[in-house]
Design brief:
The complex is a heterodimer. Chain A is an all-alpha fold. Chain A has 10 helices and no strands. The relative contact order of chain A is 0.20. The mean pLDDT of chain A is 90. Helices cover 77% and strands 0% of the residues of chain B. The chains are: A mainly alpha, B mainly alpha.
């Protein structure tokens, strides 16, 4: 079972994590601005503005690169997960249609077995595995249903030339189902690596802290602008978090395509 | 039934959406500038200019990253949908040509049936599913036509060696048509996540709001104009992203032309 801090955070409802993180960022920003303005005079801080501006610009551009990496990497991960679920559903649908080709009277039981195997596998994935797979935990029942599906199609004896040619494809489709299932189950272990998170968080921290060292006579407005920037940065991190764990939380990939097959 | 606000907006005609965006940007900039001007003195606003400029710069750099993600993601989504439609049409066309290989006298009915099912499926997609599919709603009628098509090709008995070899590919092509149809129907559910839109809109709001806190010598009108122009620039990018993210909706929707040819 995978224990992943990001996974735990991604499970939090948006109504909790959004106010919590954005609120924390705003608070840190306000407190930091107030503390530095208490320790230094406005004139002392204002002396930093020009040099600080150039350095902050540099930091922002480097941070934009790491944030871009995190965003695009997470987005890619999410869309791959969506696509693999679609493909799994489409392949199951194809197998279900292929069962109709075994239409000899003596193949009635076989045909029924094939269709039932597809339905049972889809149902087991939706009812048993969808919730646990986000932790990388496979379902034993789905293992058993996949084995039944494989046996139904791979061990079928083709009688006609049509069935022979069809079976060459259905065997490959069954293999593909197994592969797509593996892909689904390992999604959490293939999420953004910790180092990407580290540089993104370091960059966010720097971007929140740097404005504290600028001076402006109007500390309220300065605090407000800094808070807006901090809140905006934290929002990006939440987006990355949710995209990086596509089967977790309120924005997770839906099993809708498989539900239709499970009926 | 879940209502997707993005889908509703994408369906709005551009001749309504663009003027509305211009009007709202100007109105928002004017209201905001006026409100801040009432609460904070021009001297206080002028003191913020340098720090405000620094923070605006940084916000812009960060926002350009998320805006790039939105645009690239939406563009990728659009081109994938275009490609899927082309592939669906091309695969149907290939199946149509394949029917000619089942040319034994005893296979005339099979051959006619194959071609008829392709036409019926293409016609059903264009007439029944193209509009509803943009909202992710599948047509049961099209589902039945696809089943007919699958039966016509999967249940035909290959007799010659050539037909047996061809049948191996035909089976995969039929599967591909089903997969591409599924892809087409799920386009709206695979559109950009709501969170990505939320960040884009937050960025737009911040980009529009920050200039309100910086005074310029010529005063309110210049601030309003700058803020409005900035908002308009960002909004125009978001409108492009919106239309790309919903490739089967609105004035820029993908055309079913490739399938219309097959439907005849």
């Amino acid at each position: 079972m995978t224990y992943d801090l990001g996974l735990q955070l991604a499970q939090l409802p948006l109504t909790v994590i959004l106010p919590l993180t954005v609120g924390a960022a705003v608070l840190v920003s306000i407190i930091g601005t107030w503390v530095t303005n208490s320790l230094y005079t406005v004139d002392q801080l204002q002396g930093n503005n020009r040099v600080g501006a150039a350095k902050f610009q540099f930091i922002a551009e480097v941070y934009a690169v790491s944030l871009g990496l995190a965003l695009i990497g997470a987005f890619d991960h999410f869309t791959n997960a969506q696509t693999s679920v679609q493909r799994e559903a489409a392949t199951l649908e194809a197998l279900s249609r292929a069962a109709d080709a075994y239409d000899r009277p003596e193949q009635t039981t076989l045909r029924t077995q094939m269709k039932a195997a597809v339905r049972d596998y889809a149902r087991a994935v939706v009812e048993r595995e969808w919730a646990t797979m986000s932790f990388g935990v496979p379902s034993f029942e789905v293992n058993a249903r996949l084995k039944e599906l494989s046996n139904a199609f791979v061990l079928a004896d083709p009688v006609t030339p049509r069935q022979e040619t069809l079976q060459q494809n259905t065997v490959e489709w069954v293999r593909e189902i197994g592969e797509l299932r593996s892909f689904r189950l390992t999604t959490v272990s293939r999420s953004l690596i910790a180092m990407v998170w580290l540089i993104t968080l370091v960059g966010t921290g720097l971007a929140v802290i740097f404005p504290w060292f600028f001076g402006s006579p109007n500390i309220v407005v300065q605090g407000l602008m800094s808070s807006l920037l901090s809140a905006f940065l934290v929002l990006h991190l939440i987006v990355v978090l949710h995209l990086a764990y596509p089967f977790v939380g309120e924005t997770s990939v839906s099993p809708q395509a498989l539900i239709a097959l499970a009926r | 039934m879940n209502v997707d606000p993005g889908l509703l907006l994408a369906q709005m005609p551009l001749e309504v959406m663009v003027p509305a965006a211009v009007l709202l940007s100007v109105l928002f900039a004017a209201l905001g500038t006026w409100s801040v001007g009432r609460l904070i003195s021009p001297e206080a606003l002028q003191e913020n200019v340098l720090v405000g400029a620094i923070l605006s710069d940084v916000t812009a750099v960060i926002y350009s990253v998320s805006l790039a993600l939105v645009l690239i993601g939406a563009f990728s989504h659009f081109t994938a949908a275009q490609t899927a439609v082309q592939r669906e049409a091309a695969t149907l066309e290939t199946l149509d040509r394949t029917a000619a290989a089942f040319d034994l006298p005893a296979q005339t009915t099979d051959r006619t049936r194959m071609r008829a099912t392709i036409r019926a499926y293409a016609r059903a997609v264009v007439e029944q599913e193209w509009t509803s599919g943009a909202a992710g709603r599948e047509s049961p009628h099209v589902g039945l036509r696809l089943n007919d098509l699958a039966e016509a090709f999967l249940l035909v008995e290959p007799v010659t060696a050539r037909q047996r070899v061809l049948h191996q590919n035909v089976v995969n092509w039929v599967r591909e048509v089903g997969e591409l149809r599924r892809f087409r129907l799920t386009t709206v559910s695979r559109s950009l996540s709501a969170m990505i839109w939320a960040v884009s809109l937050a960025g737009l709001a911040i980009a529009a709001v920050l200039p309100w806190f910086m005074e310029v010598p010529r005063g309110a009108l210049v601030r309003v104009t700058m803020s409005a122009l900035l908002s308009l620039l960002v909004v125009s990018h978001l409108i492009v992203a919106l239309h790309l993210a919903y490739p089967f909706s609105g004035d820029t929707a993908i055309s079913p032309a490739a399938l219309i040819g097959l439907a005849r």
